[in-house]
Write a structure and sequence with these properties.
This protein has 17 helices and 20 strands. It is an alpha+beta fold.
Amino acid sequence: MNHSAHPAEQISHTVDKQAFVRQLQRRLKAENILSSPEQLRPYECDALSVYQVLPWLVVLPETTEQAQTVLRLCSQHGIPVVARGAGTGLSGGALPIANGVLLSMAKFNRILAIDPDNRCARVQSGVRNLAVSEAAALYGLYYAPDPSSQLACTIGGNIAENSGGVHCLKYGLTVNNILSLQMLTIDGDLVTLGGAGLDSSGYDLLAIVTGSEGLLGIVVEATLKLLPIPETASTLLAIFTSIEQAGAAVAAIISDGLIPAGLEMMDSLAIQAAEAFIHAGYPVDAAALLLCEMDGMSEQVAEDLARARAIFYAQGASDVQLAETDHERKKLWAGRKATFPAVGRLSPDYYCMDGTIPRKYLAEVLLGIASLAAQYGLAVANVFHAGDGNLHPLILYDANKDDDLARVEALGQQILQLCINVGGTITGEHGVGMEKLNGMCLQFSSAELRQFHAVKAAFDARGLLNAGKAIPSLRRCAEFGALHVHHGQLPHPDLERF
């Protein structure tokens, strides 16, 4: 069962498709314009495949000038535009619009320069995340943000979602690792945000655009910070007999002043799935495990590992193992990175949630998720960036069963509400997209949403860029609040003012 309705379809235009294609063909190669249903079908969704819409047209520009041409034509005719990177997003952020252009940045795939003296790389937006580190490795450097999809996901998509990854606890999200970007507005103007220095005058538009999910502009180029490859990196595997102990251990590590390069947590179902798939050496009878990596100078890493080991045992770990070789270390992380596809072997389908909570509530929220899952009769595997409280509950279901998806979405909404209740947020790195529009109504007041809409209007007054995503309308939130009241649930207090 798939959702096909799209709120952005309210942006109407009467442009003849064939006439518009002819205009494009005078400026782009014919093979870079896709219009037949067979050509369009691969672009009907991103990695959140429960939402599917066949795009009106797909265009693959090869140069900034070509992308400007497409945007100017779309702006002139009032045609909505959705930018797409690799399509690995998990919130429906790259879902097409049925009467709009899908602008694929796949051909913007060149690394333009590696500057080892200034420790930065200048890349086009379609460059793969991992490719940056592979190119920088020749100079002893790497790019720190490492989402699980880094083999395929692109820098432009990472900027749109402000992606993180395993190492974001120590090294920050995408926003902390970019110096500048070049972006096209809906009118086709090329603007540069940020610069070579650590700060620049005026508003920090670089930070506003990073994480804006393609609503404000389309990134064509970025200058990324590079870091020296650490002298050494070592990983501990800590095993626990309860979720509560593992959650308490995470809080204890951070409160002790340690900042691991990565601190990841997996529950029993995720452990079993990953071990069966990768054979990483995980204990399949454990209730939870933590992967804790320290990197830096050898002496400091040894000291930090000793402190972390002592903390884990003090918090009730049944065993703490050190990866003795780099091969063993990489195997442990391969299991974590492969958890999403591994869980896919347990069920015909799964729905990946993405919320963030204060670390001290990890155990409480995980127990709450288990209780909610039991109420809905669904299994949930949990794997997440424990160090910064970014949860990724994977809800298992079967899309061939008529009521399964509805129950999954209801459970997902309850999980997001649980995150909000403890002072958290509805997303950490996957973005809002189509998936969490109602969650935005729960988290933000009408006044706050108006500010979001004001920023959007300043960049894109007609709302043509990625329309219907990320920021819900006040009407939608009012209707969502009324629906909750109808079902006997109290809405978010701020909804009462709509």
